[in-house]
């Protein structure tokens, strides 16, 4: 399950990075268009908004896997291993509950938007309901990361993001598949 979550997060991070390139390109095209023609290029605002949603929500899981989110260890640095384990478990259970609620609420809203064929009115009529599903997918992937971290902390293992994730998985895979010596 951990490998799947990490691979999914990595794929989503690549898509998020591509969305940032799309966002930058749309802004450059729009600025150039305004300079040349004194008017905005149709649909550039809508494309930029969509790319921004993809970039933000598809990057959430990767931030959780790599530890790129904000964390403060002021208290944890002063406590022992036992208390840190309790805090890890309670933190990731709480995060799982909050992200599960966010996923459910977003899915409910996305289903409603899909049913209503929600669109944004501007220079171009732009469907916004697919972006609501992107938010759901981003939160669902983050929920998987949170659940993996709950299991890891219950098993006395470092949560994802504490060490280099690839190094962690390679080390654990090698130790699980290593032949045992008989005395």
Q: Which characteristics define this entry?
A:
183 residues, 2% strand, mainly alpha, 73% helix
Annotate the secondary structure layout.
Blueprint: H1 2-37, H2 44-66, H3 81-115, E1 119-120, E2 126-127, H4 129-154, H5 165-177
Antiparallel strand pairs: 1-2
Helix pairs in contact: 1-2, 1-4, 2-4, 3-4
Short structural summary:
The protein has helices spanning 2-37, 44-66, 81-115, 129-154, 165-177; strands at 119-120, 126-127. The chain is an all-alpha fold and 183 residues long.
What do you see in this structure?
- There is one protein chain.
- By secondary structure, this protein is mainly α.
- The chain has one domain.
- It has 5 helices and 2 strands, in the order H-H-H-E-E-H-H.
- It has helices at about 1-35, 45-65, 80-115, 130-155, 165-175, and strands spanning about 120, 125.
- It is elongated and about 65 Å long.
- The model has no long low-confidence stretch (mean pLDDT about 85).
Number of strands: 2
Count of helical regions: 5
Please estimate the helix content.
Answer: over 70%
- Strand line-up in the sheet with most strands: 1-2
Q: Report Rg.
A: 21 Å
Q: Report the end-to-end length measured between terminal Cα atoms.
A: 34 Å
What oligomerization state is this entry in? single chain
N-to-C series of helices and strands: HHHEEHH
- Beta-strand proportion: under 5%
Number of domains: 1
Shape: elongated
Biggest β-sheet strands, sense, barrel: 2 strands, antiparallel
